[in-house]
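The pair is quoted verbatim as follows:
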Amino acid sequence: MKLKIHKSWKPYLETEFEKPYFKDLMVFVAKEYKTKTCFPPQEAIFNAFNYCHFNDVKVVIIGQDPYHDYGQANGLCFSVAEGVKHPPSLVNIFKEIESDLGIPYPESGNLENWAKQGVLLLNATLTVRAHEAGSHQKQGWETFTDAVIKTVSDKKENVIFLLWGGFAKKKVKLIDAKKHFVLSSGHPSPLSANRGYWFGNKHFSKVNEKLKLLEINTLNWQIN
């Protein structure tokens, strides 16, 4: 499988690409895409890196698995392709932005605009088989994406990591909290949000407050 990842990441991840686990992972993914229906589209697997270049990373949002229904996944965590109905977690993300920043609920669920401003929208697993949640877990993706988080932590400063839910919170061990900022809350999924663990976290305004203090351009969280 051809590795389509933006050149800005290559100096930092090249050693990872050469490791046996990653080569095995690429063989597995190529076979899955050839024999099964998988998401996101093959050319979009590394979109998180292609829309957000290494030098531009200001914020990291960690998801778990790509959406596994037709037309949804576009290679950015929590994001869906243009014109696709918003999944429940994304609905709650937009509701929190609306209440936190007064930005109207958007029509599009495509978060490319965030990525282009320096938000690394990283799923722990970058591919999935259609209608089978978690079907590509434990094949090597988690090893790779953990290495990405650690690389961002080691090689950059003053990045804001948003850890939503139990799964993402476990990644805190990969982050040097002395040189970065970590904001944690419940997951935006209905189960967590309806129990009061998501709404009111004000992560979107808090990110901009921190960026302002660092004299870094703030983010426009608007989609449309």
